[in-house]
Amino acid sequence: MNRQLNFIGHISTPYNTLEACPNNITPEGPACKLTLKPEYRHELSGLNEGQEILILYWLQNPDEPANQPYRFPGTGDCNNSNLTRAGTFALRTPHRPNPIGAAVLPIETIIAGEITVHGLDCLNNTRLLDIKPAIFLETHR
Amino acid sequence: MNRQLNFIGHISTPYNTLEACPNNITPEGPACKLTLKPEYRHELSGLNEGQEILILYWLQNPDEPANQPYRFPGTGDCNNSNLTRAGTFALRTPHRPNPIGAAVLPIETIIAGEITVHGLDCLNNTRLLDIKPAIFLETHR
Fold first, then answer.
1. Could you say which residues from 53 to 72 on chain B have a Cβ atom under 8 Å away from some Cβ of chain A?
2. pTM of the full predicted structure?
3. At B8, phi and psi to the nearest 5?
């Protein structure tokens, strides 16, 4: 079975080091660009400015070595199952079994395969995995 | 770089064929269980009943052949860039460059590494990728 990811583009943010990244997504934050690869650009048709989208991205830093084991946050320990801290799945930590980041933000503009949003908290050049309309939120608002 | 996914568990739903799956997530729908692998169960600590979570899952059917190309929805065509329909990223179609499904639902119960939610629309035994607190929604409500 194919579990391989296909990056559809990249995200430009003002943050070039992990230390510079804010801890949270803030819709009032600086402009960030989602740039799609040419072969995926026409797949943005139907999205509109002002519409909320779910953005999924791959949090692993391209400079990290391949195949490094998943480490439980705050411990550096790969096999410690006796912790009292909050678990990974109760946190937004990037140290996850699958380092997928998620944000829901409104589209400011869509121009030539580039979407502008505001306030993402990830590194510049983070790889983009998916964009979906955030309609799944409407059902229980 | 490691782009390999690690399935953290599976989702049990009442739907054993794609035809049986509903088209949308409905919080009033039937109970569905998220069962974590034993090594990830303690990572649920800190999540609470009633809390909304973002659930990410891998939409590719285990019976599909590996490495099949991405097909644009509704066309079966892998290279058609001249379509007038809504694009993939404006849809929740499972036919995506990365077949990752997403749902935001409240936790009904957490018991022994199993979370119960209601109304997922995916196949029984869908593989689970991640669970996150849905705090990213709070910023712009």
1. 53-54, 56, 58, 60, 62, 64, 66-68, 70, 72
2. 0.85
3. -95, -5
